[in-house]
């Protein structure tokens, strides 16, 4: 089983270039950050609308 993990790691290491891996990580991070900011802004607007609706 250890050899299978090592072979899989070696296969991934040789087939993917480091630049494409890093690019993918940063793209995923940027998209996740944008979605998180949108969700936080939506929650803040929702909370503000709850307080304004009760007045």
TrEMBL record:
Assigned keywords, A-Z: Membrane, Nucleotidyltransferase, Transferase, Transmembrane, Transmembrane helix
MF (Gene Ontology): nucleotidyltransferase activity
Membrane-spanning parts: 29-51
Name of the protein in question: Phosphatidate cytidylyltransferase
């Amino acid at each position: 089983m250890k050899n299978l993990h090592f072979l899989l790691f070696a296969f991934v290491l040789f087939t993917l270039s480091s630049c494409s891996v890093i690019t993918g990580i940063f793209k995923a991070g940027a998209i996740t950050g944008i979605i998180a900011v949108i969700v936080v802004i939506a929650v803040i607007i929702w909370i503000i609308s709850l307080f304004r609706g009760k007045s």
